[in-house]
Amino acid sequence: MAVFMASQSAAVKEAEELRLKLRAFDGAVPMKALDPRRIRASRWANRHADALADKAYEELRADIAASGTNVQPICVRGLAAGTDANADYELVFGHRRHRACLELGLPVQAIIADIDDKGLFEAMERENRARKNLSAWEQGMMYRRALDSGLYASQRKLAESVGVDLSLISKSLALARLPDSVIEAFPSPLDVQFRWAQPLSEVLQRDPEGLVARAKELRAAKAVLSAKQVLEVLLGQSQKPLNRSTPVPERRIGRAGQGAVLTGEADGRVTLRFDAGVLTEARQAALLAWLQGHLDSE
């Protein structure tokens, strides 16, 4: 009963959020089933491909597949005739729902709004922040495109229009304006955090060539590092030289003295070191047979 009540409460809350969002589009065409292939992403689309590879997206996709379409509509605006031979509409919000319907080959439920560029950008920005928070880098790229396109005259005007603090705009933009090589050094752009904007910007101003060189070295080494470890290397705080022999963190299997240690190298090699006395002849034979069976099956 408690689970049922909780799910009902969540559903009511979600429906109310949707009702408030749609109030901004009074006068829009009622919900209509559209061909997702005839809808193009907004020029300010802000979702990185990695954002469509997480558990939340897979759950959303599964829900839409089970329902046969998206229960909550996306919002689009019509394109003027001749604007795009491959599309009739442009997304306002609902990029993840649109993508799921597109992948599943299902019609997408949408409301068609009469909205200008600023209205589109602000509606998309509010929707994304309300549903699934954008990463710091995604948010920065969205703001950067809006400013670079001349949609807003300044960061302050942008902050006032979307209702966020000016410092958040500045931090987001600082990350979005980092060299591509720096962002590519991280496991994913989604891993970059707001609080890293200041130290990375300071290093970029003080030693741009060194920062880019360290970033390129990270990419070339192909070492498996966490985002925090990458940050330390980029800032010059890492005490270990980074090259193709730099090992990734070791992993112990079993208790000390009674197990083994697995170590991966940056060049892809893996070493498994057994503690003394652990690998008896019988265990060695069993291990070799297991390895032979798995390698032969590849």
Automatic annotation (TrEMBL):
GO biological process: chromosome segregation
One Gene Ontology MF term: DNA binding
Bilayer-crossing regions: none
Pfam families cross-referenced by the UniProt entry: ParB_N, SoPB_HTH
Domain (ParB-like N-terminal): residue spans on this chain: 32-134
Record GO cellular component, one term: chromosome
UniProt cross-references to PANTHER family, sorted A to Z: CHROMOSOME-PARTITIONING PROTEIN PARB-RELATED
Family label: Belongs to the ParB family.
Protein name per UniProt: ParB-like N-terminal domain-containing protein
